[in-house]
UniProtKB/TrEMBL annotation:
Coiled coil: none annotated. It comes from Nocardioides marmoribigeumensis. InterPro entries: AAA+_ATPase, ABC_carbohydrate_import_ATPase, ABC_transporter-like_ATP-bd, ABC_transporter-like_CS, P-loop_NTPase. PANTHER family: CARBOHYDRATE TRANSPORT ATP-BINDING PROTEIN MG119-RELATED, GALACTOFURANOSE TRANSPORTER ATP-BINDING PROTEIN YTFR. Keywords: ATP-binding, Nucleotide-binding, Repeat, Transport. This is Ribose transport system ATP-binding protein.
Amino acid sequence: MSETTTVDRPIEQMPLVRIENLSKTFPGQRALDQVDLDIRVGEVHALLGQNGSGKSTLIKVLTGFHAPDDGVRVSVDGAEGAFTRTGPSPLDGEVLNVRAVHQHLGLVPQLSVVDNVALCTGYLRAPGGRIDWAAQASLTRELLARVGLEGLDIHAGVDVISPLERTQVAIARALHGWSEGAHGLLILDEPTAALPAEQAEDLFTLVRRLRDTGVAIVYVSHRLDDLVSIADHVTVLRDGRSVATTSMEGLTHDDLVGLMLGKEAAAKAHAVVRSHAVEDGRPPAVVDGKHGRTLRVSGLVGAELRGLDFTVAPGEVVGVTGIVGAGQDELPYLLVGARKAAAGTVEIDGTTYDVTRLDPRRCAGLGVALVPADRANEAVLPQTDITDNITLPRLRLFSKGGWLRRSSERAEAVRWIERLFIQPQDPGKLVTELSGGNAQKVVLARWLGVARNALLLAEPTAGVDIGAKSLIYSHLRAAAAEGLPIVVCSTDAMDLEQLCTRVLVLSDGRLKAELTGADINEDTINHAVLSATEASA
Ligand SMILES: Nc1ncnc2c1ncn2[C@@H]1O[C@H](COP(=O)(O)OP(=O)(O)OP(=O)(O)O)[C@@H](O)[C@H]1O
């Protein structure tokens, strides 16, 4: 902050950061519209809103990635000043630390913990310019101690530590240069998205600890139960406007849905999400038999999986779950050859294939589609528009006499935009200009169009709001009802409860339990994952 003047207000009522009249306009799109936000010392302040409501844009303005429109007013610690761009964040400076930990953490898996910390802090140098490894190790240990990771081997690769430890390392390095007790704003964006349920609780303990040392925390998540557990206040964004700021005291999951969507839309979303009752473990009746051959997987071996056999009947939605690394995270990639399997076969539409010889392109040709978990790196084609992203694997369908018919491609994109309520409804919009949840719908549209014989999904609802979740569920149910075999690999027990007719629980690369019927509910699934993991330990 610069050019500061003191505001005449009682200090105890004064927020650490007060932002007024914050707008951000992209060409043709007002992403934030006169938003006001007060964040206090020692609170967890949740940002809640549907896909495209402006949460990421707000974070990107706070961290200096986007400059806001003119007219914003800011005060920090009671001192008013301009929203200037002096540090990495326009608010970061002597008075305030502003740090963000994003959903994908920004760690390099192949590097050690100490190197990953150094990527943020810079390597400490001894006289003469060589790296002072002893000092670097002690700085790393000091930062890790602040997040409760005293015992972690700092030379271990980030790929071998647990998902919770990775999140802790990312938070630890964000605290570099921020002395304990100094004022600051820590932004956590979907921090539990990659964490199994039991590790999320441990993360909350850390977040509460940081809050109690005076850190102001902005917490963004579509996992509403997280917010009920951890947030002190919530600000609700709708179409770029802040429509409510309230204390979280006494608020339930359903209250949050109501605040986010408005009462009427909330009731509708709730009804759709709950409309699917899988009572006896049998697949729902196949209504038109458009697809209809069993997917049969035998002896699948990968880096994690150690020989998995299962079948998915036409119209069945089989869930596969476990803690990260149990095998469900690599399963769909192995089946389409996106990661190298060591052994295994898969029967597709009556023909058996050696999985070690498959590749994603060939699988797409066979009508087997994979919706990957890492949307940004594995799924969207960044420099292209919604139309290209949806139609790319099926371009031949839109060609005549060797010429691509752009009009029929666009018509197909418009059909999916309408079916999945993709926003904005512009087939020519660059996919990088979409919110995360809308980009996920585009990816889903692409692969729903390809899947004739099987659809494999990895974490299909990560980062999507409750309304979009219900929409995705109903499209997947409809595809199953047409006889498509579907495999949902997910750590989100709600996805599994709402979608699956059978759930396979893996641990250590092997099948440990199979849940059907009334056992397919969030509590039993979480419990089965925990028991399977403990039994393998
Ligand atoms: N770089 C950009 N260029 C143009 N429009 C953008 C850009 N980034 C975001 N938008 C638009 O701004 C609006 C808000 O998007 P934002 O990503 O902030 O939403 P969000 O609440 O974070 O959504 P989600 O929960 O899906 O991640 C959307 O309409 C989006 O299409």
